[in-house]
Every structure is written in C-alpha cells, then in structure tokens.
Amino acid sequence: MTIAAAALVLIALGASARWTWWRSSAPGMKVLCYHKVGTPPPGSKLKDLWVSPKKFRAQVKYLLDHGYTTLFFSDLKALRDAGQPLPEKSVLITFDDGYENNYTEAWPILRELGAKGNIFVVYNTIGKTNLWHNPASEPWVNMATLEQLKEMQASGVIEYGSHTMNHPHLSALKLDDAAWEMAESKRQLEAAFGREMCAFAYPYGDGAYAPAIRAKALEAGYTFDFSFKQGKTPWPWDRENRTIDRLFIRGRDNNWDLALQLSRGASRL
Ligand SMILES: [Zn+2]
Q1: CA 208 / ligand 1 centre spacing (Å)
Q2: Residue percentage of the chain with pLDDT more than 70
Q3: Where are the domains of the chain?
Q4: Residue 19: predicted pLDDT
Q5: pLDDT at position 14
Q6: How far is the CA of 21 from the centre of ligand 1 (A)?
Q7: Cis before residue 168, ω within 30 degrees of 0?
Q8: So what's the pLDDT on residue 107?
Q9: Are 46 and 138 in contact (CB under 8 A)?
Q10: Distance from the alpha carbon of residue 94 to the mean position of ligand 1, in angstroms
Q11: Which CATH superfamily is domain 24-264 in?
C-alpha cells in the first residue's frame, strides 16, 4: 500500500468513528429542528442552537437542489387525513420557540429560495424574550412580535404550531396545569392567527414520553406532537403509541451532516 492509500484508509477510519455514513438509511419522516438563525451573542453557552444565516441558506438550497418539497404542518395533516404516503423527498423545516431572528434572518431566506417553514410559538413570550432560559447560560434575545408573526403567515411561507404558554418542564407541573399549558396555547394561538394549530412540540421534549401528559396533548386536539429526540419516525405514523422525532441541525453542522441526517436519521456519533 502506498503512503497515500494508507492515509486515505486512515481518513476513512477517522470519519467512520465520527459520522454515520456507514449506517443503512432509515425510512420515515424528515423533520428538521432549528432554534435560532444568527450569530450567538457573547455569553451563550448553547452556541449549537444558533445556525448562521450562511449555513441556513446553504441547507435550504441543498434541500431544494436535491428535489425536496418542503411541507407545512397542514400539508402533513392533509396527507394523514387522506391516508396518503409521504412523498420520499419531503421535509418539514421547524423552528422552536419563535425568535425574532426567525423573522429577520430565516424568513427572508425561505421566501427568497421558495421554501416553507413552521414555527412552534410560546404564546406568553410573543414580543418578549426567552425568559425561560437562565441568562447566565443563554442570554435573553427578542422573540418575534405578533405583527412579525402575522406578516410571516400572510406571506404564505410560515405556519405555526404551539410550544405551550410559558415553555415549562411539563412533567414538573401538576397534570391539570400541564394540560392547561397545552390546551390554552392552542386556543390562544388559533384566536391570534385565525387558523387551526394542528401541531405541538414539548418544551425540552419533556412530557413526550409521559403517557399521562401525552394523553392531555392529544386530548387538547393536536393532530401531531413532536419530541426532542433525534431520529425519523415511520409513516404512516403510529399516533397512539409514539411522538414524532426530529433531526437537530446544530451550529457546527455542514451539508454533509444534513445529508446524513436526512438519510440515516443522525449524522455524528
Ligand atoms: Zn423550546
């Protein structure tokens, strides 16, 4: 073996140890999960929740260049109601929490490139800040205002789902209070946006695997509930028995990670 060939083998072994390209592809729903698009502020200890606008644009472009159709929650619901298969090359772009940078950074990119996005909104922090974070580890930044959210909806580029009233750890609440967080946010968001909220995401993923809490989410009338677990969920979806997993796009990820996430359900080990 030449030195060059040996070097290639070593590089391949190194990549095997870190990335998942050797796994077989996993079937199921491709639901990307983003939080903030922009540059992390000084003091942020959750930098991986920030994706730069440049990377975000490259990722959306990758999806469209590779023939993906982006879906709204309502598109997914229509497919489910009609008992139809999920198009192989379909993807949901979701954002958690409802940051102002979704309006200033992500929305213009989606609009320009012709892709759809979905945002899980925390009702009580609309127009405020991410009050649920400890500012010592994650500085407070602006959440989108109601006007900004309405403008994005009117553009036909963004749809909404609920992420509770206050972003609590649902399992730390009394069951009645957890149920209220889920049902009241659905009511308030539907009143604010004049359309059905068919999707819900558990803050921190907390409650997604607690049967009593999950029962309250379904009772509140959501068609879909999304976890905070890495992976792809088979379609048709076994709604009675599981929440929908997602593919987490981190700040350090590149398009190679994105491609592995879409096919394998994960990129790095
Ligand atoms: Zn959240």
Answers
A1: 13
A2: 93
A3: 24-264
A4: 65
A5: 62
A6: 29
A7: no
A8: 98
A9: yes
A10: 11
A11: Glycoside hydrolase/deacetylase (3.20.20.370)
